[in-house]
Specification:
Layout (H helix, E strand, L loop, with lengths): L2 H24 L6 H20 L3 H29 L4 H11 L2 H10 L2 H12 L4 H30 L2 H19 L4
Helix pairs in contact: 1-3, 1-7, 1-8, 2-5, 2-6, 2-7, 3-6, 3-8, 6-7, 7-8
Amino acid sequence: MNTIELFLLAIVIASNTLSFSFGLGALDTKKYHLRIVIIFVLIEFTVPLVGLYIGQFVSSFIESYSKIIGGLILAGFGIYTIISAYRTKKQRQDSLEFITSIRGLLLVALGLSPDKLLVGFSLGLAGVSPLKLASIIAFFSGLFSFIGLKTGKYVKEKFGEYVQVFAGSVLIVLAVINFLGMPF
């Protein structure tokens, strides 16, 4: 697999990070943006490397559940985003404290990473450089996290609370597409 193919693969793989970050950006998370990007980059760098060292049995087990896990996380956050649009400011702040905590972000980033684990495993068998693979995926995940956080924040400032409902709806649609595959 050449470098251009790795870049394209990384863009596709990092798209769920973009979606999730867009939802986080629509919430009041500005003071946590650096923490979010750093944790996503660290996890997105590490998980493909771990995938390189996982055996065939574990890979086939995770593969059968990766669409479900990824879809449930996206749908769950989509529902959370929609519900939070109707919460009081205090209730939103309490929820955001957990989701933007290091523990909360680690759980989210790990939950969004089963596909990276499988890609790391399969490309490791194909002889792709582990550090090159992990670095490219981490780069696009960091870039997409930043873009999603800033875009979600900007859109919310322009359109108010409605953007949270829209962002949540987009996450739910992406969850369905993730689970069922592209409709076309």
